[in-house]
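To illustrate the input format used throughout this study, we show a single complete record. The first block contains the structure-token representation of the backbone; no residue identities are included at this stage. The design step must infer an amino acid for every position from geometry alone.
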């Protein structure tokens, strides 16, 4: 031995491989006081934090360890006196060994040594005392020939950290509740399966299965029971798959199934097997037996979908059609010229609406609403128009349905609100109404915008009428009632538009607390020709008057119809007889003083 340890720190031990004394660092040596001006012993510090120093002399395979090696590694020091003996304890499942890190590194020592950090698993006492995961941090140095000649470093036990890393690795690929693939790993397997099918000129399948009525299970039994149903469903789906197929949790109540070597007939057979496997037996839960079923949509790739995004989109589309047909059924994706045309139209409409918003090409037109008797203008309905780049205008009915379908209507409502408020600010004598889509009535951002506009501008709210459609009102009477109350609390009035189209009962109409009822023009325009429409409109106007509500007849075309409506007590008229929507602002003309309080 060439090392000369301090006698109070090192304790000699004979190495089994050479018969020479092996230097061990004594971790039990007394601590050195900082006040004594003694130099801190790094060996002692390493021992105190559970790290074992070592030195490996590669020329004779001698391995020297710190004295705390037996306590930390749980290994008889006589067993690890050589590099080869230590290597024999490394488990085969370890990705790398110290020998490989040093002898096969492929790097050159430029004089400062070559660092390495590796992790591996040890089986102490030749595998009889369990396994120990360690992290080995060291540096090797080359000899005269440039080959590794010696290495030194420290070893620390990382069993807890390794278990944590294993857990994280597991969760990165598997769903914690079901034990099946998570969404990320499922999509990775799907992409690999699709690529393989494309390369081999075969086909694969993808099924998307959704547990039916999971929200009802949550409400009836609680989330814990719903989780039990999800886990049981995953197990049943797994039990119905062929070897090589896989299942993963796509989202909360949805599972994705990747099927290799799968054609259209195989897809249906697999889907039917899954549906029956889930449906045919009740699920045993801690709350008792619960019935469960799944609705499935599927697609064959690359025949009907060439990318992962296409596979997912078309499987979801097929599942949506299955749900619309019957819960617990299966639908396979089939190409449709009409659907593809609709998708292209959606893309075009989205681009056009977004561009119009960004370019500030959303504008207003104004349609007068006049008092039936005097024919003077009571207020103007502000209607949205989208200006094309060439200057032409798109009416709201050409834009709003697409905007509602694509989730863009709330952006349009925000802009229209801003424009209408600006008009009311610029013209103190103006009274106007604004149409609000059903989505915006529950949109916190729209409410925030309305509240901010009206509170910052006193006098505007009392001149603003907010119009909601009857179909939106009857969708959720209680929610609409809350909307009406909040709008009226701000000082605005509320009108229910297109009344009669949804056949709302007058009990609900009274419950809503609106101020104005606008009779659907589809009934008004036929009152001179249709006995049924005439009776309906007359009854509606009479009942509205009894409830203390003002009435507006839409689509009034001529004086004859206006006279009939006046005889029934209709308060306001709107339509071609009074004036169509226009970009002109009549209140800016000298006759603006004719606009009186409604």
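Output of the design step:
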């Amino acid at each position: 031995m060439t090392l000369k340890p301090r006698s109070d720190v090192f304790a000699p031990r004979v190495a089994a491989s050479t018969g020479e004394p092996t230097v061990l660092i004594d971790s039990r040596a007394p601590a050195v006081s900082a006040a004594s001006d003694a130099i801190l012993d790094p060996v002692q510090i390493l021992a105190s934090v559970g790290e074992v120093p070592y030195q490996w002399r590669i020329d004779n395979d001698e391995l020297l360890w710190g004295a705390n090696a037996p306590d930390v590694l749980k290994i008889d020091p006589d067993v690890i006196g050589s590099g080869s003996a230590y290597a024999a304890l490394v488990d085969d499942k370890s990705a790398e060994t110290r020998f490989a890190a040093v002898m096969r590194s492929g790097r050159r020592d430029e004089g400062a040594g070559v660092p390495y950090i590796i992790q591996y698993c040890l089986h102490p006492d030749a595998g009889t005392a369990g396994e120990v995961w360690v992290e080995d941090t060291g540096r090797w140095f080359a000899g005269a020939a440039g080959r590794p000649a010696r290495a030194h470093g420290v070893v620390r036990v990382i069993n807890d950290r390794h278990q944590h890393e294993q857990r994280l690795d597991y969760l990165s690929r598997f769903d914690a509740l079901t034990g099946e693939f998570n969404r990320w790993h499922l999509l990775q397997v799907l992409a690999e399966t699709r690529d393989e099918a494309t390369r081999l000129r075969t086909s694969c399948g993808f099924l998307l299965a959704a547990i039916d009525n999971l929200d009802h299970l949550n409400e009836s039994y609680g989330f814990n029971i719903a989780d039990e149903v999800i886990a049981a469903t995953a197990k049943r789906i797994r039990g119905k798959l062929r070897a090589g197929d896989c299942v993963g949790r796509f989202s909360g109540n949805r599972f994705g199934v990747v099927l290799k070597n799968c054609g259209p007939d195989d897809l249906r057979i697999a889907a039917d097997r899954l549906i029956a496997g889930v449906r045919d037996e009740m699920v045993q839960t801690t709350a008792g037996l619960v019935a469960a079923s799944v609705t499935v949509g599927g697609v064959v790739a690359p025949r009907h979908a060439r990318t992962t995004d296409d596979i997912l989109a078309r499987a979801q589309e097929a599942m949506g059609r299955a749900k619309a047909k019957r819960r617990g059924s299966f639908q396979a994706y089939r190409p449709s010229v009409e659907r593809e045309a609709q998708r292209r139209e959606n893309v075009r409409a989205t681009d056009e609406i977004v561009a119009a918003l960004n370019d500030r090409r959303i504008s207003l037109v104004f349609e007068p609403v006049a008092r039936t008797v005097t024919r003077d203008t009571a207020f103007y309905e502000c209607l949205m128009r989208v200006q094309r780049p060439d200057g032409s205008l798109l009416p709201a009915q050409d834009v709003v349905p697409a905007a509602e379908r694509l989730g863009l209507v709330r952006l349009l409502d925000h802009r229209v609100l801003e424009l209408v408020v600006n008009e009311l600010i610029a013209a103190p004598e103006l009274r106007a109404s604004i149409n609000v889509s059903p989505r915006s009535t529950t949109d916190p951002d729209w409410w925030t915008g309305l509240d901010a506009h009206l509170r910052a501008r006193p006098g505007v709210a009392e001149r603003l009428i907010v119009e909601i459609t009857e179909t939106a009102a009857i969708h959720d009477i209680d929610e609409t009632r809350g909307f009406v109350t909040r709008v009226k609390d701000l000082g605005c009035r509320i009108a229910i538009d297109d009344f009669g189209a949804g056949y709302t009962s007058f009990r609900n109409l009274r419950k809503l607390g609106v101020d104005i009822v606008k009779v659907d023009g589809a009934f008004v325009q036929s009152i001179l020709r249709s006995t049924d429409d005439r009776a309906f409109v007359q009854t509606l106007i009479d009942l509205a008057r009894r409830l203390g509500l003002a009435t507006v007849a839409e689509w009034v075309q001529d004086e004859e119809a206006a006279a009939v409506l006046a005889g029934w007590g209709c308060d306001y008229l709107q339509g071609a007889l009074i004036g169509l929507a226009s970009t002109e602002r009549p209140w800016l003309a000298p006759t603006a003083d004719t606009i009186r309080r409604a």
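Structural context for interpreting the output: The chain has a mean pLDDT of 85. Residues 516 and 550 are 5 Å apart (CA to CA).
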